[in-house]
Amino acid sequence: MTTQYTRFTALSLLLLTVACQRIHLPFSRKLPTAGAITQEGLLTCFAPGTAVGGKPVWCETSAVWFDGSNLFFANDKDMPAGQSPVFTKSLATLDDSTRLPEYKPQQPFSNATKYEDFAQIPDQKFVLLSTAFDRVKPDGGWDSYNTILYWRKGDEQHPRVLSLGNSDRTSVSLRKPLAAALADDEYPGSLPYFKIEGLAATETKLLFGVREAGKAFDNFRHVDKIVAVSYTVAGDRIQLKNDWKVVADFKPETADEKLPRPLGLSSLEYDPARRCFWLLTSLEIKGQVDAYLWVISKNDLFANKPFRLIRTVNGEPLHFNHKAEDLTFLDKDRLLLIHDDDRFQTRVGRRVRQANQAAYTIVTVK
């Protein structure tokens, strides 16, 4: 009797385990393969005619994050006094040109230059915002281009600087471990030049998406590399460990021979609901701009496997006719992409983008 009962219990547990796996596997592991553009518009970043030093300011918005009610944006250009490169607008008024955004006047936001990507840690307690890290001077004159700010969600009035020290005004101290991690056969020991355009956070890792790598800002190649480092949270501070390394080196052109070249990484985001990463690659060459959307599971990214290209229902690569720079999740199946079309007067329907505007796209994936 005891033996039969033991066998019955073991069999029941086995069947229950299999059933649970069958219930949860499709939700946790099935990644979207198709997407469609379901909305497009123009974001008004500031009043028409806004200028700095007598020159018109262009809205080159390259970072976006949705906090559940408001959208945060970051412009990669300096703004006049009294405004800020970081601002918010509600989702409901996103396309309303009569309502200007709310600017974030805190000094750390204005101290940093050339923002590129927002990120949020999976427990939603902290938000991060990174610059490009694409220039530096020995005298410290360009340290502002090397900054990652972070703050507790809802408390953007008190942003901190992420660095290897606790009182640094910029994150220039992160250049050394990043350059060492990106070293290769051509540049052993340390890579002289790189540009960061992606920032993502898992429960234990910060990931930096690298778009350019080489000798200098005018002598580089487009890349799609991802550097990871472990982090911990202690009170109100994020602290980095010392295990920097390249975890992914993706070649977009291998996914579809019809894709244009060169495609460089322009955004990286972690999706904790699906345990996957979303990637944007963009093109800017001879007056042409375009971008493509990719996805990969968390395990596959850390195994350096290729990203999967999101396609239309007809099987063609989904693309945007804009230089997509960042994305954020509006809900489980809708992504909002913000575009930095530089000074190109690209179109959204019949409307032509003006200097004080940025194009955006909402994509529904399945």
List keywords for this structure.
WD40 repeat protein; Neuraminidase; globular; 5-stranded antiparallel β-sheet; 42% strand; single chain; mainly beta; 25 strands; 2 domains; 366 residues; 4-stranded antiparallel β-sheet
Would you tell me the overall average pLDDT? Answer: 92
Number of helices: 4
Query: How many strands, what sense, and barrel or not for the largest sheet?
Result: 5 strands, antiparallel
Helix-strand makeup class? mainly beta
Question: N- to C-terminal separation?
Answer: 51 Å
Radius of gyration (Å): 22 Å
Shape: globular
CATH C-level name of the largest domain: Mainly Beta
The second-level CATH architecture of the largest domain is 6 Propeller
CATH topology heading of the largest domain:
Neuraminidase
Protein name: WD40 repeat protein
Structural features, described:
The chain has two domains: 1-29; 31-365, 6 Propeller (Neuraminidase), CATH 2.120.10. It has 366 residues and is mainly beta. A hairpin with a 4-residue loop joins strand 17 and strand 18. The chain has helices spanning 2-29, 107-111, 175-181, 298-302; strands spanning 35-44, 51-52, 55-56, 61-66, 70-75, 86-90, 102-103, 115-120, 126-131, 148-152, 160-161, 193-201, 205-216, 219-234, 237-240, 245-249, 264-271, 276-285, 288-297, 308-309, 324-329, 334-339, 347-348, 351-352, 357-365. The strands form seven sheets. Strands 12, 13, 14, 15 and 16 form a five-stranded antiparallel β-sheet that branches. A four-stranded antiparallel β-sheet has the order 1-25-22-21, with no helix packed on it. The chain has a four-stranded antiparallel β-sheet with strand order 4-5-6-7, with no helix packed on it. The protein starts with a helix and ends with a strand. The chain is globular and about 50 Å long. It is built from four helices and 25 strands. The model is unreliable at 8-28 (pLDDT under 50).
